[in-house]
Amino acid sequence: MNGRYDVNKPIKSQFEPVLPTQTKAALRMVLAGASDRTELASGPLAHIVTFTDELFRSDGTMRDVYPVLAVVASPAAAVEVEAAIKALARLATIPAPPILRIDRDVDGVAALIQTVLESGLGRISNYARTMATELVMLRRERETLFENFRVLEDAFRARNWEPASEIFAHDVFVDPKDEGIGRLMTDGWVEQLLPVSSFGVSGFALHFRNLTKGGGEVVVTLDYVENGEGVAEWVVPFSDLAADWNFFSLPKACDGSPRTLRLRISANGSEPPAPSLGHPIASRRYAARARSPHGDLDHRPLAIKIYSGIPGVRPTALPNSIAPSSLISGRRIEDYRLPLEALRAVADVSVSPIVPDFQTIRFLEHEDAIVCHPLPAGISAGAVANVVAPGTVRFSARAVIDHAEGKPALVGFLLAPSAANLRSEIAILEREGTARRSAYFSGWRDVAAGEPVSINIMLDSPTQRTMNLVILSRAKGDSVDFSWLKVFDFRMVRHFDVEPRGEALHAQ
């Protein structure tokens, strides 16, 4: 084979079968008894009939035939056909053909059978046989392709070419005055453009300055600047990060046209590990930046190493690498906080037999937080209407009991359809312990005084419609004294498909 094919021609013309296709004369679809050979051998079915004494080879295997119908013209032939069908059943390869008796007008009925089989089933059978032959050729081509890939890998190893090699690095520059980088991750995000083309990028490494004992997760996303299309997302618990270089791998090296990659880091939790910064650089384009101004950013990049490999090929040389939590290829990522106008409009939808003499649900103006005080019985709930946009895949917030003597409580979140009766949804949750199938429940989390916890809802698939956010709390023990449960830092992550005109719009 010379490996050159004309893509405008059908597959059959590109792969000439090495096995001859069966001709019309050899396409035998009718089974008959040997006793009827005289009646059928010279009639219309002569070229498509197989007799019972010809059905099997001497070694017991069936010949290259496929009987779809059995015809019987005499009692002796009926016995022979039934015996042959029983033998076919033992092979368990083809279904037993139905038996048609043609005692009278043998030639007339045989002519009708010939017309039906050759006009419909004959053409389909010929087509299926041709496709099977070409499938054999495609399988051989596939085996050859995989063999060529193996030879290519051997050639790379023979020349000591690594499947993933470091192509860029910003070394760690420790400045004792660096402070507050971790806080920037919880308040918003820290991001940076990668100073290399996306073509062939297979992974990267980030350096973290310290470990943390608190609970939470670091969220790392990688996307293209030109159209906002996401590449991958990593959600890593604090405990899985080392105070050293941490390697993040892609499922395959970036391919397609060269584009600009943007790395963004955020965190959910009280005290996330802070990423290290590199030496100051002259170009602010490739320096780190954050949602909030910070004196150490805008002239220093993140400490980072970038690895490259063969475009479209899975990297294999990144040690102890962290695999993506989700692939978001072809989607745009939007990480946003709930607007204050929506939080101010929080509504009390509590389901409880107790009517307290104080306000259990309210918005704290100067802290951008919602108070949801639990009651001794039932569920206290505050609803923020229609704030969960379609395409949302993750919701997170933090909760704390904001009183030193506050009794512990339970907190949770419910995402419910915009048209749902929220009190009914909460009543079902209290009674059955689970939400309806149309809603999403985060589960209950323990909250103690002065110990903030992070609550996350990670959905298997993006939401298809606008939904309400409901903040839930309930008593953990017998007392709810001073259980001023404060919920804050509401964040949403939304994925949505990239518009076809996205690149053109950014290019203008």
What can you see in these coordinates?
The protein has helices spanning 11-14, 37-40, 75-91, 106-158, 181-187, 340-344, 422-432, 502-507, and strands at 30-32, 49-51, 69-72, 99-101, 164-170, 190-197, 201-207, 216-224, 230-237, 245-249, 260-269, 289-290, 304-309, 326-327, 331-337, 347-348, 361-364, 369-372, 380-388, 392-401, 409-417, 440-441, 445-447, 453-458, 467-475, 485-497. It has a six-stranded antiparallel β-sheet. Strands 15, 17, 18, 20, 24 and 26 form a six-stranded antiparallel β-sheet that branches. It is 21% helix and 31% strand. The chain is an alpha+beta fold and 508 residues long. Strand 8 (216-224) and strand 9 form a beta hairpin. Residues 1-25 and 499-508 have low confidence and may be disordered. It contains eight helices and 26 strands. Pfam families: DUF6212. It comes from Kaistia defluvii.
Structural class: alpha+beta
Q: On the 0-100 scale, what is the average pLDDT?
A: 80
Strand-residue fraction? 25-35%
Radius of gyration: 35 Å
The gross shape turns out to be elongated
Mind describing the biggest β-sheet? 6 strands, antiparallel
Number of strands: 26
Biggest sheet, spatial arrangement of strands: 12-6-11-8-9-14
Q: Number of helical runs?
A: 8
Distance between the termini: 47 Å
Organism: Kaistia defluvii
Protein name: Membrane-anchored protein
Pfam family, one: DUF6212
InterPro entries: DUF6212 (IPR046184)
